[in-house]
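A common beginner's mistake is to predict each chain separately and then try to dock the pieces by hand. The better habit, illustrated here, is to supply every component at once so that their relative placement is modeled jointly.
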Amino acid sequence: MPAGNAGTVKSAPQYTKYHPRWYRPRVSVYWWLGEWHYLKFILRELSSVFVAICVVETLLLIRALSNGVEAYASFVHTLRNPLVVLLNIISLFFVVFHSVTWFNLAPSAMPVRMGGKRVPDVLVAAPSYGAWLMISAFIAWVVLQ
Amino acid sequence: MNGNRSKEETKPSSEAFFWVLFSAGGVVAALLIPIHLLLLLLAIPLGWVQPPSYDHLMSLLHMPLVRLYLFVLCALPLFHWAHRFRFTLYDGLKVKHLNEIIFVICYGGAVVGTLAAAYLLWRVP
Amino acid sequence: MAEKITIEVARYSPERDTEPHFQSYQVPVHKEWVVLDALNYIKDTQDGTLTYRWSCRMGICGSCGMMVNGEPKLTCATFLSTYSNVGAKIRVEPLRYFPIVRDLVTELGDFLAKLKKAKPWLIRKQEMPLSQGEYLQKPEQLDQYKQFSMCINCTLCYAACPVVGLDPVFIGPAALALAQRYNLDSRDEGAAERTAQLAHPDGVWGCTFVGECTRVCPKHVDPAGAIQQYKLASVVAWLKSFVMPRGHES
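With all components supplied together, the output reads:
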């Protein structure tokens, strides 16, 4: 690459002085559709939207309960609407997806070492699944008594 | 060794705070949201299980511990959503240049939801 | 296994082109050949103008990283036989999210500057005098950071990470893993000094744990894991900055 002597360097359109023009590819706003791994990542992140939807529905449920028997019955009736059922089934898929990906990835942030060796992430995640199951069973028992 | 570096430069970013909220919310959401969704929003309305009586649900709701639990159940996952959605907008829609508006919408939304939860749980008769 | 395979290579010459285009070559398939062998065959026998980086051809120098059928790979470690069904094509492009200098060669100056931001050297408040001998380190102490020290700077993780592509200022997986490698080294006392550049929205907080970097890393460094650990450490550092606002060098 000719350095120095600016007078003899031809400034052809694709050249800047002293180095050729690099090609800089643009990242499309649809980058996440290009690859399954990227799409899976975005879906994982969007699961947080369904978590938020569940929270909003829970707040509406609490409001309905506070407003009396008829309000609660009417709310339950709304929950039976096919569109709402569809939304909630899709939400269920996404919040479970959140739980599974969360338990699987959390051990990366807190590596556990026993006897000088690293415990495999699978074993570190297992107690979370156990806790998840037990807590869920307990809540079901409390509510359905 | 630090030379003339100002305190601002060496201070760790406050992003740490939002990440802690996100993490706490993520744990709460992962452990508790699925069963609540399954039970209260699907199984009971659709009759997959014997529905609990209104009185039983109200007796649960009356307990201060239950209301505190429900507050945490609602508030923390909302902040989890706020943080995650904010970054999804940055990366997914490439709108990082709108970061101030996005920040306000996301965390503002979480704050509004948290206040709503506090109010609704406070006014349980 | 087919006898010949088509290799589509991205070509870009700043003298002639305004953007890259593809050129196809036919390459014989030998059982033990890798994509790098195919590129060398093309350069030796068909098209001497093909330009690319390579060196050790055994997966340790990190020079030969390229996109092979849309995946960041070391071409010296990617066998042709993986792709050689009848009619299969191999598409070779320069690593994603980097400026392209020519053909398959990417510009790495930005990457090297980011590595430097991690201050990848042992930082001591006080150097031990020579008379005290070497810094001793137990095997358990080595085990703390050894995985993160295996990085060969091949930049496959940068080609995999969407945040690198979307935010050119983001420091990136390899630099952050490297910083964590030094933070975890028992001989190092520089964690606080690295905090400035790295516990920062363009540093560790830019990472959204996509996890692609770990998936493509040829040396199993797990940069994503390093970054999550660094996030946790940054939280501790941030909390400490309240408890000890002055002189928080710990």
